[in-house]
């Protein structure tokens, strides 16, 4: 990922629940789509991070990412002084990443289908953990297959998803993503710059002051 700039703007107005919101060609927010599965998803995250602990990765430039990361599946995104890449083994433990639970695979595929992407079979599930104030700067997801969409699930504390354009300096839309919301982007929008504004200090009944994000991709 490439870190970019963030803009601090006031909270955007609320949007209706349940109505898909088109972000652009091939990109959609599906509000609350997996809210009923939030407890199961969080328990799957717990199982994974017990075996592959969350860690703060460093960027090639030496910066420490505020978001805690782990993952499951055949390959998981890692970053260190050597660069951004996918690895089959967890550098922290030397072991293969935990396999992707069938439940996660099914939910990711169903989310993709709902967004118009039939036949999406992710081989990588990234876990991002945001504490209060943690953020992810504007970036493009460039390190995996670009002919497959990204399926992104928000859990816990609400955050503002930043949805930019095809260049880093394009105007940025701010979209509130809540527990159980899903964002899917692919096709002509696959390389849109995006990020997460600093997560507010807030409480969610399932997660305390934490936001989790699960992101599914195809890497090989
Ligand atoms: O946390 C999010 O919603 C976005 C995560 C993201 O963009 C990424 O992992 O590449
Ligand atoms: Fe991303």
From TrEMBL:
Binding residues for 2-oxoglutarate, per the UniProt record? 128-130, 211-217
Enzyme class, top EC level, equals: oxidoreductase
Domain annotation Fe2OG dioxygenase: ranges: 121-220
Q: Name one Pfam family in it.
A: 2OG-FeII_Oxy_2
Q: Where does substrate bind?
A: 77, 84-86, 143, 168
Tagged with keyword Transmembrane helix? no
Q: Which cofactor does it need?
A: Fe(2+)
Q: How is the cofactor bound?
A: Binds 1 Fe(2+) ion per subunit.
Q: Name one GO molecular function term.
A: ferrous iron binding
EC numbers, comma separated: 1.14.11.33
Q: Any idea which positions bind Fe cation?
A: 139, 141, 194
Gene Ontology biological process terms in this record: oxidative RNA demethylation
Q: Which GO terms describe its cellular component?
A: cytoplasm
List UniProt keywords, sorted A-Z.
Dioxygenase, Iron, Metal-binding, Oxidoreductase
Q: Organism's domain of life?
A: Bacteria
List the PANTHER family.
ALKYLATED DNA REPAIR PROTEIN ALKB-RELATED (PTHR16557), NUCLEIC ACID DIOXYGENASE ALKBH1 (PTHR16557:SF2)
Name it: Alpha-ketoglutarate-dependent dioxygenase AlkB
